[in-house]
Design goal:
Layout (H helix, E strand, L loop, with lengths): L2 H14 L6 H15 L22 E6 L2 E2 L3 H8 L8 E8 L7 H16 L8 H14 L11 E7 L8 H17 L5 E6 L1 H12 L3 E11 L8 E8 H9 L24 H11 L1 H4 L2 H4 L3 E5 L1 E5 L2 E5 L2 E4 L1 H9 L9 E8 L3 H11 L15 H11 L9 E3 L15 E3 H13 L2 H6 L1 H12 L6 H19 L11 H13 L9 H14 L4 H15 L6 H4 L3 H7 L4
Parallel strand pairs: 3-4, 4-5, 8-12, 13-14
Antiparallel strand pairs: 1-2, 1-3, 6-7, 6-10, 7-12, 8-11, 9-10
Helix pairs in contact: 2-7, 3-5, 4-6, 9-12, 14-18, 15-17, 15-18, 15-19, 18-19, 18-20, 19-21
């Protein structure tokens, strides 16, 4: 493996706690993470997309609906039952090889595995991730009238640590594969590429590097001093510069994560408003009127600099203008130097001001209130509670905002965003690991208001995340078998019952403070006090025969597990 690639791989492994895995598995996780990170709005569990050693030529598979990873057929059904009829759907396949060569036989095996996945009537794999993805894929095919363009898109990445020089045999195999997928008729856009060390390194670096962009402004005006705002500008820029410099990532795709705070996903060109925007861009005479016909885009950044006519932005978020941005991206080939777009640019490092801007700029049309959960007051208090452990072994970082700790050399294993924390709390204190495991959309619908209630004790979040952190470290140090990661949400419930007792107090009660204190004390430092309850929980799980994926999705198995806690 090339020295530079190996150094980046080691950085990823250390940050995520994968030290005990062999290098080939580490590289699979590294590649899956790098390829998918820029395609998804929210963070995700690598276990949900990475195949096991029993895979048949596919190292990673992800099904993405509206820039979010879907991990169960039930959640896919929930997406399509929303009434929307223009969902963006992408199926991503990955194969990762640590060698520097591109083996034709390996690629053909990858190709055949994908064709079998997509075309077999009675698909069956030895890998649960692939079987689960196929169930989701079946739901997608039965809902194609609700997919933009009438078909999902497919992306395949064959990755090695070498340099791809387009040998004739591999290029012919890729073209044949494209033709076979076209003949199958299941997919709209088909994107098959060979990646080498340069491409995968660039994608990996983009996951942690501060996103910096600059734009040449046609005109700009500074707004007067505003309380809580460091600087604010109104600017007019070329639309094509906005797309090229702010919206497109290293893989040529839309930078999904810059819309993380914009709570309305893209509604598609077919949406009446977006159709009107697109029609304006398609007509030469109309397109020049774009800045007076469109409200523009609101961008928030902790670091805004204006030097002459150049606007510099770092770690920016588009908090309003998701629809406009996506239509500009879709119509990027039509944009010329005469098409301008209005920008409202706000600099603030104040998370409360940031949250106010997100809510205010996304309230003009109806938005499901569950999408605002991360902006509730409890979330700010949880972040402050996590910060009280500064300097301690159990110091964790609660991410109120996507990429909040990027560039600060904080290990990913110590960082917990709102979504992961909610899963941990739902599992540990609501005893619903089944929802965290496979039904996150249902989890928010059923438990979101209770988890993020204003009177929930902050220690509930910290205790749950601390327990999950210790579990990750124990797996990384090989004190716990690697295959136990699959059962982590159930393990959280068991260790809680073992350490603090089976009866869970109300989340807003004083008894809950004492209850969570037992967990925090037990898991605050590495040692036997940490390992013993986890070993007991694992012993309970291992006592179950035929603990299938299907059983884990049901509540009954947890009751059987808890009955074994003495």
């Amino acid at each position: 493996m090339h020295r530079i690639t190996k150094t980046h791989l080691e950085s990823f492994v250390k940050s995520h706690g994968f030290e005990q895995l062999d290098e080939s598995k580490q590289f699979e996780l590294f590649v899956n993470y790098s390829v998918l990170a820029g395609r998804l709005v929210n963070t995700y569990e690598l276990d949900d997309v990475t195949s096991s050693e029993t895979d048949d030529g596919i190292d990673g598979v992800a099904i993405i609906i509206d820039e979010e990873l879907v991990i169960s057929s039930e959640d896919a059904e929930a997406c399509f039952s929303s009434g929307r009829k223009n969902h963006d759907v992408e199926v991503v396949f990955v194969q990762a090889k640590t060698s520097e060569s591109y083996d034709l036989g390996d690629f053909l095996k990858f190709k055949e595995a994908i064709l079998r996945f997509t075309a077999s009537d009675n698909y069956k794999s030895n890998d649960t991730v692939q079987n689960n993805a196929r169930e989701i894929f079946d739901v997608i095919l039965s809902n194609v009238p609700k997919i933009r363009g009438g078909k999902p898109n497919i992306t395949a990445r064959f990755v090695t640590t070498g340099i791809y020089r387009k040998p004739e045999a591999l290029e012919n195999a890729k073209n044949d594969f494209t033709d076979q997928l076209n003949d199958l008729g299941y997919f709209g856009n088909i994107d098959i590429e060979f990646f080498g060390r340069e491409e995968i390194t660039n994608l990996w670096v983009s996951t942690y590097e501060t996103v910096s962009s600059e734009l040449e402004m046609f005109s700009n005006a500074a707004l007067p001093k505003i309380h809580g705002i460091d600087e604010a500008y109104l600017a007019v820029v070329k639309a094509k510069d906005l797309v090229d410099n702010l919206l497109i990532n290293e893989d040529g795709n839309l930078r999904a994560h810059v819309f993380q705070e914009n709570v309305r996903a893209f509604l598609g060109i077919e949406n009446p408003v977006n159709e009107s925007i697109a029609r304006t861009l398609d007509e030469i005479n109309q397109s020049t009127r774009f800045p007076v016909l469109n409200n523009g885009i609101t961008i928030v950044s902790p670091d805004v600099r204006v030097q002459g006519s150049v606007l510099h932005l770092e770690n920016f978020q588009i908090v309003n203008g998701c629809q406009t941005s996506n239509v500009l991206f879709e119509r990027r080939e039509n944009l010329n130097d005469s098409v301008m777009v209005n920008l409202k640019v706000v600099e603030t490092s104040n998370e409360d001001v940031f949250a106010d801007l997100v809510r205010a700029t996304n309230s003009q049309s109806k938005v499901d209130e569950t999408q605002f959960l991360s902006l509730r007051p409890i979330v700010k208090r949880v972040e402050e509670y996590f910060n009280t452990f500064e300097g301690q072994d159990g110091r964790l970082y609660f991410e109120r905002r996507d990429r909040q700790y990027v560039g600060r050399d904080i290990p990913a294993v110590r960082t917990f965003n709102v979504n992961v924390a909610a899963k941990a709390v739902a599992s540990m204190f609501f005893e619903r690991p089944d929802l965290a495991y496979r039904y996150p959309k249902q989890m928010y619908e059923q438990l979101g208001d209770q988890i993020f209630s204003d009177d929930t004790k902050e220690s509930v979040f910290y205790a749950a995340c601390l327990s999950l952190y210790r579990l990750h470290l124990l797996v990384a140090s090989a004190d716990i078998p690697q295959n136990m990661r699959k059962y982590k949400w159930h393990i959280l419930v068991l260790v809680r019952a073992i350490v603090a007792g089976k009866d869970v107090p109300k989340l807003n009660s004083r008894k809950m403070e004492a209850y969570t204190k037992k967990l925090i004390s037990a898991f605050s430092k590495h040692g036997s006090s940490v390992l013993d309850p986890f070993n007991e929980a694992i012993g309970i799980i291992q006592s179950f025969e035929n603990l299938t994926d299907d059983r884990l999705k049901r509540q009954a198995v947890l009751e059987e597990m808890l009955a074994k806690v003495s």
